[in-house]
From TrEMBL:
Similarity-based family: Belongs to the PGAP3 family.
Taxonomic classification: Eukaryota, Viridiplantae, Streptophyta, Embryophyta, Tracheophyta
Annotated GO CC locations: endoplasmic reticulum membrane; Golgi membrane
Signal peptide positions on this chain: 1-23
Protein name, as recorded: Post-GPI attachment to proteins factor 3
């Protein structure tokens, strides 16, 4: 009972703290709110007007004739009257704040970014797309290494026993970075949930893979026993975010915990086993840990484009190349260890044979 008395006020204080941190100064500004309200009535911000802000007598938006509608590259992003009013009022208010030297503030939980062809966060979109391309390149290189450069079994399968797990990891990575690019391009409820769910799924699977590889779990039954609890937790967390509450604070804690756990596992395993490519792995662990600080140390976008989150995406591009290089080295290292060379004298010559030991 005594512990409950302490927990209740503690949670109350933390809740107030989180609420304070999440509050946005920009959207509570009276001038900004007045601008949005006026825009939604008139369809104009200053001299700029929006055709899709015109409404009929029953309140239904009138798109107007085809020459008055937004071009396709804008319409597919579903910019509506409210979002356009908020964006243009934000731009106008930031210009007013910049004149006396005031810094930018957040609006509806986000920093004021400048659109490029209707894309909300162009830098994050570009870096997400580059991460997607880098993962595809790494995965394709890993595939070619396994099935075209390293020896194969009689059934044409590779000797690297963790190959299937890395193939699945490649699919999770491509999916996650694809939805990251889509979400940063246009932030709506659907793209937000897809981005968050894909990131959680990738982190959860990466943690499972780190445990299986570092502890060299090869038996299928043992892999299922190790993976099942984590799979259940990750699945429950994704369902919670999508169908109950999209809790940003709780999701951040879960993601940071899973990320830190796997970084520690990989770093310790590389040192204990003295892996030949441990330097590559340590670079990924160390720089990846530093990059995570960008998610904590948030700052306004530079020139309206480059913020802390975009820089984090940028730092992961070279790390992705090094990471897939390590995966390839691990496959070569394990395959090489399966080869036992021995020599047999044959007359005046010596024949060198190879035997593959799959144990």
């Amino acid at each position: 009972m005594i512990m409950h008395r302490y927990w209740i006020p503690l949670f109350a204080v933390l809740s107030c703290l989180v609420a304070t941190l999440d509050a946005s100064v920009g959207d509570s500004d009276p001038l900004y709110r007045a601008c949005v309200g006026q825009c939604e009535k008139t369809g104009c911000v200053g001299e700029r007007c929006f055709p899709h802000c015109k409404f009929s007598s029953d309140g239904v938006s009138i798109d107007g004739p085809w020459y008055m509608q937004e071009p396709l590259y804008m319409r597919w992003k579903q910019w509506d009257c409210q979002s356009d009013c908020r964006y243009n009022c934000m731009v106008e208010r930031e210009n007013q704040r910049e004149a006396p030297g005031d810094g930018p503030v957040k609006y509806h939980g986000k920093w004021p970014f400048k659109r490029v062809y209707g894309i909300q966060e162009p830098a994050s979109v570009v870096f997400s797309a580059l991460n997607l391309a880098m993962h595809f390149h790494g995965w394709l290189s890993f595939f070619i290494l396994l099935y075209y450069k390293l020896p194969l079994k009689q059934d044409k399968k590779g000797y690297y026993e963790f190959a299937t797990l890395w193939h699945i990891y490649g699919l999770f990575s491509l999916n996650s970075w694809f939805w990251s690019a889509v979400f940063h391009s246009r932030d709506v409820d659907l793209t937000e949930k897809l981005d968050y769910s894909s990131a959680v799924a990738l982190l959860g699977y990466s943690l499972i893979l780190a445990i299986l590889r570092s502890f060299n779990v090869r038996d299928e039954a043992a892999r299922v026993m190790v993976s099942a609890p984590l799979l259940a937790f990750v699945t429950t967390h994704i369902l919670y975010l999508n169908f109950y509450k999209l809790d940003y604070g709780w999701n951040m804690k879960v993601c940071v915990l899973m990320a830190v756990a796997q970084l520690l596992i990989w770093g310790i395993w590389a040192g204990v086993t003295r892996h030949p490519s441990r330097l590559k792995l340590w670079v990924v662990v160390f720089v990846g840990g530093l990059a995570m600080l960008l998610e904590i140390y948030d700052f306004p976008p530079i020139y309206g484009y480059l913020d802390a989150h975009a820089l984090w995406h940028a730092m992961t591009i070279p790390l992705t190349y090094i990471w897939w290089s390590f995966i390839g080295d691990d496959a070569k290292f394990q395959t090489t260890n399966l080869v036992k060379k021995f020599e047999i004298p044959f007359g005046q010559k010596t024949i060198t044979l190879q035997r593959w030991d799959c144990k």
